[in-house]
Amino acid sequence: MKHFHMLLAVVVIALFIYQSFLVLGKQSRAARGVKIANHIVYALILVSGAWLLIQLLSVHAPIQWVIAKLALFIAAISASLKAFKPTATASQSRMGIFIAAVAYIGIVVLAIVKPGNLF
Description:
The chain is built from 4 helices and no strands. By secondary structure, the protein is an all-alpha fold. The longest helix is centred in the middle third of the chain and has 27 residues, at 32-58.
């Protein structure tokens, strides 16, 4: 399940980069299929992450970094929604992409480092 979760994370970041290039390149927004795929991948990554969290809880591992990753993931989704909204202005799109990119970078750093005593 860990490898599946990591694959989904790569797909989420790839979809984000693809949509960002479309918006920043002043081209049309992403096709409907990309938006549907994005929602499906978000759901799958949350389910696989919950499954991995249950496994961590069963061995009493520290999970503070998981909570931080979840908070950053919610921030990334929220910023992406605003950035890729068809009615968003150019500055709103740029700022949303920036915030989401920072959140995704934070998630990747937390996934690699896995600090045991984050809080």
